[in-house]
Amino acid sequence: MASLIKTTSKRTGKPRYSVQVNIGERNRPTFPLGQLTKKQAEAAKGHIENLLSTKRSGSILDGPTADWLARIDNSLRDRLAKYELCAPRVATKPQTAVPKLGAFIDGYISKRSEELKPRTIINLKVARGHLVEFFSVDRDLDSITPGDADDFRRSLIAKGLEENTVRRTCGRAKQFFRDAVRRRVIDESPFADMKATSVTANRKRDYFVTSEEADAMLEACPDTQWKLIIALSRYGGLRCPSEHLALTWGDVDWKRKRIRVRSPKTAHHDGHEERIMPLFPQLQPYLEAAWQELIDSEDFTPEAQPTSELPVITRYRDSNSNLRTQLLRIIKRAGLVAWPKLFQNMRATRATELAKEHPGHVAATWLGHSTKVADKHTIGR
Questions:
Q1: Do 6 and 16 contact (CB within 8 A), yes or no?
Q2: In what residue span(s) does the Tyr recombinase domain sit (predicted)?
Q3: Does residue 96 lie within any of the structural domains?
């Protein structure tokens, strides 16, 4: 049925073995075994004979031969399969190294750096910091379990972070791991089933900034630009600083008494790149003062650049300008006590006023948010 053939290697002088099998119809293929001991070669011959016998009888392959078949190299296995003495070996996908936690998140942020706003990138990096602090930067991504994710959330609470900060951080962690699942890096996200990762309104931090308080701040401002920043926030309801800095004089329509507000925050939503709102009477004097200051300036050269392209806020545009710190100084100078979410509550106060004076959908459109969002952030009085 099968014959063991011995030859000698010309290069090494060592014996080499092969097995010749009589399959039938003058078909006697040879299966090289390589440099083996005679005992190993005879064992291989016996296994090949078992393969041939199993093929002819249709019986089940015995355990020892099946184990041998699983261990042999690909060249011998492929040759046996060629003559239908065994099934072809299934190619296995090479194992790729599971990325480390820190490196994966860094890659995620880097890939999205062109589409994300600077503040969003900062927030993602803060979430990354919490994750690598708890799990370590070199933790294998697939080794983190849902139980580990729960422990991570508890660690944030133990740090004394506010509920919404915990929710945001876990939401961003969920975002990272969801991306890993989509890229087939891991099979499932340990944060997938975690609830309470969306932010809820914290009514304890609501504060209605009265017109008297606004007037006191305006009186305490060091210059016209700061007066305009506060007026745009409190009486215009603009998002600070993004919408303030995007505003140009071409956006101010004095004749029709309206303002075009371009919103970087909602620009990625179709139809929400900009909005039109009234030039409110409370806001108009501060825009007029800033305009007069501009045209009276020695640096005013409309021939060098169209006036419509000039920014309304010319100072405090640098990324190092900490508007919150400067506003705290103004509040102190005005004899007031600072409130939570300084700029957000000025915008929310204006939203509350407008919702009381106008139809809800109209007020929401002017401020660039949905009525659902408006209801969530309206300050009760």
A1: yes
A2: 204-381
A3: no
